[in-house]
Write a structure and sequence with these properties.
This protein is of the alpha/beta class. Helices cover 39% and strands 23% of the residues. It binds N,N-dimethyl-L-histidine (AVI). Keywords: Methyltransferase, Transferase.
Amino acid sequence: MTVIPTLPAPCKRKPATDSFYNDVVQGLSAPQKHLDPKYFYDAAGDALFQQIMQCHEYYLTGCEMEILTSQSPQIAQALQKYAGAFDLVELGAGDATKSIHLLRELLDNAVDYTYFPIDISANVIKQLEKELPAKLPHLQLHGLNGEYFHMLQQLNEYSTRKKVLLFMGANIGNFNTAAARSFCQQLRQYLQPGDLLLTGFDLKKHPQIILNAYNDATGITRAFNFNLLHRINRELHADFDITKFEHFPTYDPSTGACKSYLISLEKQLVHIGEDVTVSFAENEALYMEISQKYTLEETDQLAAQTGFKPVSSFFDSKKWFVDCLWQC
Ligand code: AVI
């Protein structure tokens, strides 16, 4: 006899295995309430981040783009000098709008390499596999859809070639300094002596310039932060009242920590599904994201602490941003 299990009635409570739900509940139950910024990037968050990158206050994208468009020949030369023959692996490849300049330069120099973009979004990888060959017909491309370390592990089983890892866009800034150290140490474990890492850092500069980048006049960064509350409302059946929170970016020039908060404008209760109630005091801060800024000396220290040796630095003309080349 076949027993057909009864399907449970649709339930407003999320299962305990849902990591989004668990992370949100855990973050909102902590003494310093926080949300994990990786959840910013749903479809609406992706679109808002695209708009942030177009904002004139958000200088980071333009600075790194300038480095890639004007210095790809020098970067390509350095990669060949320090690595010889290699494959190019990009963590969080996105649409490769910056790295395409380096990819093209390497192809123009007849460098034999395969490009392995890694991204958590299957859609991103699908798009890259569809669009890049049209732009770079001779490119050998193998997309990897999944979590960085898991994909690096798979790659190590598949290819024994030397690796050049790209981690662009100041993504490392979204870790606090301790987490950046442990991330680099972990990365190092998937690399061999002689492998290279090219990673972008936003540099310390006048505090107002940094603060404005996270507080654009048109309110796109504000909307980007609030989008996560909308997402929680929609996907986890919560009832955040957006009008009762204020976007509050901060920058501490002594530590280089640029942190964004949402401030509760009054004492209030927020429900998540039927089981969880979170209470906010008036003026309580919900910590959303860090975007850590560095000096070049601090990037050198980070390399030294995590098993890398800095071999070259590529700056934009204002020296606001640096792509550091480190070797294992
Ligand atoms: C993705 N990351 C490098 C951006 C940053 O600058 O920290 C995310 C961002 N958040 C607000 N504006 C941009």
